[in-house]
Write a sequence for this structure.
């Protein structure tokens, strides 16, 4: 899995990844983002999902852990461009109750928080 983290400005960081958040990739995805968060002052973390093709339960756990880290720091986590299948997984897990999920195509929040 390819993961790229970019510091934009004003404490905003943008994470691009492609592939599957499964048993093979989710731990490295989570660890690389946690390492980054520990080395920077990040107020808002945007996870770009346009090239994520699948999220297994371990991937859901990774997203939940990132959400908890950001919430403990009184910071924001946003997911962008989540495909329909992954969106259904988030809905099934109840993540839409606390995650902000946005879509570039309509420039509105899918689930605003």
């Amino acid at each position: 899995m390819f993961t790229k983290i970019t510091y934009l400005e004003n404490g905003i960081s943008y994470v691009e990844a492609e592939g599957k958040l499964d048993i093979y990739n989710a731990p490295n995805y989570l660890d690389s983002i946690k390492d980054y968060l520990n080395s920077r002052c990040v107020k808002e973390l945007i996870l770009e999902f346009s090239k994520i093709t699948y999220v297994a339960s371990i991937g859901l756990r990774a997203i939940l852990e990132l959400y908890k880290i950001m919430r403990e720091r009184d910071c924001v986590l946003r997911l962008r461009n989540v495909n329909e299948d992954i969106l259904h997984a988030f809905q099934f897990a109840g993540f839409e109750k606390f995650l902000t999920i946005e879509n570039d195509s309509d420039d509105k929040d899918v689930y605003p928080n």
Notes: The mean pLDDT is 92. The radius of gyration is 13 Å.
